[in-house]
Design brief:
This protein has two helices and three strands. The chain is α+β, with helices and mostly antiparallel strands. It has a three-stranded antiparallel beta sheet, with no helix packed on it. α1 runs antiparallel to α2. The termini are far apart.
C-alpha cells in the first residue's frame, strides 16, 4: 500500500513551561494537515459532522471552561451530530486529558 493523506487533531497537557519559554503550558490542541502544516487551536473538528460541531463550538465555547462545562458542551456537540447528520453517527466516548493523564 501507498501513503494515505490524513489530517489530525493532537492534544495534550504540558505540566511546565516549554524550553523555548513561549509561555505555553497547560492544555494544548493542534491541527496538523496531511502536508505537515500545524496550527494551535482553542478547539477543532473534522469528519462528516465537523461543520455541524464547529458551528456549535463557535456559539458555546469560551476560554477557561471548567471540566463540567466542557463535558456538557461535548454532550451538546454529540447531540447536534445525532440530530443533523443524516447517516448513522455511531457511538461516542468523551475522554478527559488533564495534568494527571
Amino acid at each position: 500500500g501507498g501513503a494515505y493523506p490524513v489530517n489530525c487533531l493532537l492534544g495534550g497537557f504540558d505540566k511546565q513551561e516549554s524550553q523555548i519559554n513561549d509561555g505555553t503550558y497547560g492544555p494544548s490542541l493542534f491541527w496538523m494537515d496531511y502536508m505537515g502544516a500545524m496550527q494551535k487551536l482553542d478547539y477543532g473538528t473534522h469528519g462528516y459532522g465537523g461543520s455541524f460541531v464547529t458551528a456549535c463550538l463557535d456559539r458555546h465555547y469560551k476560554k477557561n471552561m471548567t471540566q463540567e462545562e466542557s463535558v456538557a458542551l461535548m454532550k451538546t456537540c454529540i447531540k447536534t451530530v445525532h440530530t443533523r447528520l443524516t447517516m448513522s453517527s455511531g457511538q461516542f466516548v468523551i475522554k478527559v486529558i488533564d495534568k494527571n493523564g
